[in-house]
Amino acid sequence: MATIAGNLWEYNFARIIVLDVTDDYRLSQGPVPMDCYPVLKEVWVPMYEIDARLSDPQLMEGYLYDWHESPDRPDAPWFVGVVHAQLLVEAEVRAASH
């Protein structure tokens, strides 16, 4: 009789951690280590949806997709960096006033 070693759901679902990287733009600084960003949200999605969900505008309401980093191991999370949409509005207002 065959036995299953491990949890199959770990291969069928992806953990996405959404990080707020707004300060990189607000402060005009380069990226910092991943664990320095505030975590906004953590979600689990089916692996077949991963491509569509990474840049989905509804992933974090009020934020815009900036980048993502895929995991180096199957059991590691995906990281998605998002920027607060208000920052874009503020930049457009400054540009229009000059």
Entry keywords:
31% strand; 98 residues; 28% helix; single chain
Fold and architecture overview:
This protein is of the alpha+beta class and 98 residues long. Helices cover 28% and strands 31% of the residues. It is built from four helices and four strands; from the N terminus they run H-E-H-E-H-E-E-H. It has helices at 9-12, 22-26, 50-54, 85-97, and strands at residues 13-20, 39-46, 63-69, 78-84. It has a four-stranded mixed sheet.
Tell me the overall shape.
elongated
Let me know the average pLDDT: 85
Query: In what order do the strands lie side by side in the largest sheet?
Result: 2-1-4-3
Question: Total strand count, please?
Answer: 4
Rg over CA atoms, rounded to whole Å, is: 17 Å
Uncertain parts: none
Helix content: 25-40%
Summarize, please.
With 98 residues, the protein is of the alpha+beta class. It contains four helices and four strands, in the order αβαβαββα.
Topology, please?
Layout: H1 9-12, E1 13-20, H2 22-26, E2 39-46, H3 50-54, E3 63-69, E4 78-84, H4 85-97
Parallel strand pairs: 1-4
Antiparallel strand pairs: 1-2, 3-4
